[in-house]
User: Fold BnaA04g18750D protein from Brassica napus.
Amino acid sequence: MFLAHLRYFLRHSKLLSIVRVVSLAMDRAIKEIVSGIVRRSVCIACQTTKELVLKDYALEPDEARIYSAAHLMVASLAGSFAHVTCKEPLRTSISRYLRHFLQDLNIKSEALEQIVQLVTNDNLDLGCAAIEQAATEKAVQAIDADIAHQLLLRRDGAGSSLSQNSVSFIPESLRPKLGQLSLSQHRVYEEFVQLPWQKQSTHTSHGLSGEVGLGSGYGPV
Assistant:
């Protein structure tokens, strides 16, 4: 996509150098911000998910359903938080690295700024998708540990469900009931995967990854 724009500014002999620069700039920019964004997103998503899932499924006998609901919710929340918080920092970081690396190609200042803007805009969604994916994967791992600990306490009878005192503050219609949640109640968790930004993010990732050649892994976060 961005190569069509670059042909307007540069001779063909520089295109391969531009592609290498873009790949390097994207990789550096993502690595620069991914750790902090993923850490914050996962922390918020896991805390929220744990509280809601353990309340809704407090009397659920099937632990697989509890894990399933937790995975759906935490993945969506972590990805959403990462998506919202990473875009502008990533835009700034990509532009800065592109500008730095492109200076070595002896491109005129005016053309360089146009290239930086075009390439950044064309690849920003790809970078966001990579960070969202990292947050999603980390969140699912983290919530498994949180849920497993709480379920162990429940099996041992040390923290199985909401206390009678805490239940009294919950409206009758929202209180957990013995047995499985109804289909309509469980569907609330399934609908987390239907968020519009997630569909767009997946489409963007599939459509652009081949052009830039970014890897999917960015090390421990």
The first helix runs from residue 2 to 9. The CA atoms of residues 9 and 114 lie 9 Å apart. The chain is about 75% helix and 0% strand.
